[in-house]
Batch of 3 targets.
Target 1
Amino acid sequence: MRDVESLGKTFRSTHLNLLLSSLSPDDTHTNMSPSKFIKIAIVGTGLIGPRHAEAIINEPSTVLACIVDPSPAAEAVAEKLKCALYKSVKAMLASSDKPDAALVCTPNHTHVSISKELLEGGVHVLCEKPISVDVASGQELVNIPKS
């Protein structure tokens, strides 16, 4: 069991490092935090979301900005993680907790619409696999122009 847990931590660390490699505190993107920390949100608090949140909390160059999830169970997760909770991406984007980046950890069929909303809101995105349930909807993300 310990080997599986270790592998999971390595996988989450790799995900986070992948996201961080596309960002840096001196990133010229207009929505980057001026501080030395990269603000990251977790969208979805099912099985993997809280695990990614723990990886963010344990990474010295990042801060968990908030979590986004409409589920009543998300309140307990936000309380445990000591972070803000938003019921929608729209509410989060309008808040003072708007992150530099977000990890999308929601059901597969929501990946495209949520990622698209985040990208259009100026937030860098790392999406859990699969990125989409079909090629056509995945192409929508590829076609979003970079800001």
Target 2
Amino acid sequence: MISIRIPKDSDSITIGEYVAFYSAQNEVERMMAATGLSRQQVNGMKAATTTEILDYFEQAMSRGEAKHKRILKVRDMTLGFIPDFNAITLAEHVDMETYANAMYHEGKIVDYNALVSLFCILYRPVIHEHSGRYELQTYSADKVASYKEYVMELPLSCMNGALVFFLITLREYVVSTAESLATTVMSETQKEP
């Protein structure tokens, strides 16, 4: 008898499981990602059972709330979200843009590993924390390997929360830019004879 852990919502699915599921080349690999079972165990399962489990796993990914968490504990490491986007370095900016561009093609995610790389920039080890403020390990592509496995263990709800954070931030930026542009155009229009 095989015991299978089936997650109930996005809080109980990790970024690593999500990436493995959508990077899978076939149903066997998707089942391995969704259940943590070996290839041999999955191959011995009934097809109807695997279909049911895969459907449930996909539904679980869409259940739950997006949660933007600034600091999270993963096993023995504390990870923190970039506290100030106005203070990001050029290396962070270039790598985030590179990974974001690699992820998408024609509006769809095509490279799920780039998603993990992007989140390794957004969430990094906290090296100092005091009174609600924290300092992150300085970003370097060479250091990512030392904490990538921890980022992959972040809950999917956290990834969704970070994406919602970006959508809200982008919306605020667009509204602010549009208001500024409208003010400039109105000023210029009023100056004309």
Target 3
Amino acid sequence: MVIVSRPGALPSRIVRSLVPPLVLLAAVACAGRGSPSRTPELRDNTEVGKASWYGRKFHGRPTASGERFDMRELTAAHRTLPFGTQVRVTNLENNRSVVVRINDRGPFVGDRIIDLSRAAARQISMIERGVVRVRIRVMRNSGKS
């Protein structure tokens, strides 16, 4: 069988054989970050899981909302909650809590549900531990995404 095509062009049979694997690869790549299986829906405006914190390395950098990250402010990153949403975060190990404003997206590490600014992490005494089990409760939803 002789395939005739333009010089430099791939034969259509080869192109057709590459389409299914490329579509599958694209689907797998898109499924990783923030997929529903990794981001449980809030039930009764609450969610329980692990929290981490971020600070100096990201201080001054733009957040997903467009504002600059300030590690001294009471802010947090969440995968799905709208920007501006106020959330009460309670450290389940010591029952300390803080109200933060969602201004970034994340965390995208393991099974964590929220990333707190350094100031918020200090309020609930989690700086030393780094990762703690928390309950988050939506206090006021801004409606912005």
